[in-house]
Amino acid sequence: MALQTILFDFTLDAEKTATSSQRQDVARVVRNELEHVFSQLELAYSMESLDGGYFAVLHENKETIITCRIFQQGLLTINVEYYLADGKEPLMSFDTGKRVENAIAKKLNALWGQKLPTLKRGDVARYFPSSDERIIEYDIDTLVYEARSPFQKIQIMHSKTLGNMLILDELQNIAESDLIYTETLMGRGIENYEGKEICILGGGDGALLYELLKEKPKHVVMLEIDELVMQACNKYLNTICGDVLEKRKTEQYEIIVGDCVEYMKKFIADGRKFDYVFGDLTDIPISGAPIGECWDFIRTIFEHSFKLLKPDGKFLTHGNGTSCLESLQLFEDQLRLLKPKVKFTTSKAFVPSFMEEWLFYQVTFA
Hints:
With 366 residues, the protein is of the alpha+beta class. It folds into 3 domains: 2-120, S-adenosylmethionine decarboxylase; 127-174, Roll (Spermidine Synthase, Chain: A, domain 2), CATH 2.30.140; 177-365, Vaccinia Virus protein VP39 (Rossmann fold, 3-Layer(aba) Sandwich), CATH 3.40.50. It contains 10 helices and 18 strands. The strands form 4 sheets. It has a 7-stranded mixed beta sheet with strand order 14-13-12-15-16-18-17, with helices on both faces. It has a 5-stranded antiparallel beta sheet with strand order 1-5-4-3-2, with helices on one face. A 4-stranded antiparallel beta sheet has the order 8-9-10-11, covered by helices on one side. A hairpin with a 3-residue loop joins β3 (54-60) and β4. Belongs to the spermidine/spermine synthase family.
């Protein structure tokens, strides 16, 4: 048994935290990112200090205590404390802590980027990062929907040129304009899905399932963990998903709500095989080495997917922006390490709502 303490500290531009409004913006960024780990986080106390600083106490179930302090000199500190009983896993691992730290730094940079053109900002966020962390301005005029599931922050925003856009954890995912994304992922006109058995990992926006069903497959099973994403997309993005998210099971398809890895294990144990497995999950991490929770997850998906494929089956997935050369190379290195050996091809498409070119992978047994 032990007391767990995690301290984060950031050096800020003191001019960017000089006013109460600016300090509140920073505090909101911190809380949003911490809520990805502590989903039941509540604010217990906050105050503006006389010397131009800020102090807040947050808690989760009165067991995890988090203090946040902004100093007038431009220093931000976050202290997380909780009691860890013997045999229990830490609430925040080293990898998770690094991810939170990087996300806060990234969002603060984006926040201050948003403040430059103040006349355009309005009441809704209009700036989101590209795959290589450039800040892109969108013509967003309305926040259509916002909620937080047990897994992520969900937003649907309306763009004048792109239509409704799905934003997950403040990262653009898909918009009504993005049919090219789905068609390139599935290789429309290249792959033949008629009479085939297909497994989709993720795909909660429903777009891939909707387009695949037009190709007359034998059956499609979709494994999606977030029910709330599907409900939101069914209501506000039905131009890309049709009515497929209305039901969870038909003769043509089944949507299983749960952890895809656990269901993949079950399918493997049952000897179930597929002609196609789609990885419509997390993007390739932007990192200098293939280490950490995200890379471990990618390797787990690889391992299980190829156990589910028929000998002539194919694993199809999205990669990342074509400008992310180092991360794409790391991803391909992981493919080359797989046993049995695999081979892969790639395709590219400019995705309107990403405002950049994206890379897609087609992987088969060598």
